[in-house]
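JOB MANIFEST
job_type = single_chain_structure
chain_count = 1
residues = 97
[input]
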Amino acid sequence: MKLAVTAQARQDLLEIEEYIGKDNAKEAAVFVQRLTERFAELMESPGIGRKRDYLAEGMRSSRVGDYLIFYRVQGEKLVVIHVLHGARDLPKMFEQE
């Protein structure tokens, strides 16, 4: 399986690192690394994520700490759509797209 990370998901990762980095730059980098390591785990077992069809057809999520990685499987490709804090208004985030 191949990995594709959308521009929005890359932007999400930058914002997460910046936000956490205000308090601790090293911890921010470590946490973003944990998030990206989960991408590889999801490529190995894409079905482990929670189904989120109410947000968008075929959408799944996987939790890392307080953050959720939102992704879809498209053929032989895992597409990371967003990486968001779990306390966000998720339906609103996805209806804007």
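[summary]
The chain is about 40% helix and 30% strand.
The mean pLDDT is 92.
exit_status = 0
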